[in-house]
Amino acid sequence: MTDVVDSDELLRRIQRARAYAEQEKRTWRSRSDALTPAEPDKARDAAVRTLAYEAVLGVLDEIVTPGRHSEEG
Fold it and tell me: Structural domain of residue 25, as residue ranges?
């Protein structure tokens, strides 16, 4: 399945993916914060997922605006 899409559609898809990753990052961060004292293993898993979504956000941001986010840490 190879759909040909124009640059506007590609940008829309990236923006949807970014919005999804941002929401998931917030969700997992909240879970991590809520679980920390009670369940450290689950909190650690949630923290790792938060970091993974942050990485995805960084990649998507770099695609849309190259070089702009490379200095952020």
Answer: 17-64
Please tell me the distance from the alpha carbon of residue 43 to that of residue 20, in angstroms, as a whole number. Answer: 21
Residue 71 lies in a domain: no
Three-class DSSP category at 71: coil
CB atoms near residue 1 (< 10 Å): 2
Q: What angle do CA 31, 46, 67 make, to 5 degrees?
A: 110
The total number of structural domains that make up the chain: 1
In a domain, 10, yes or no: no
Each residue's pLDDT, cut to its tens digit, for the chain (73 residues) gives 678 889 999 999 999 999 999 999 999 999 988 887 888 899 899 999 999 999 999 999 999 888 886 655 4
Is the entire prediction scored with pTM above 0.85? no
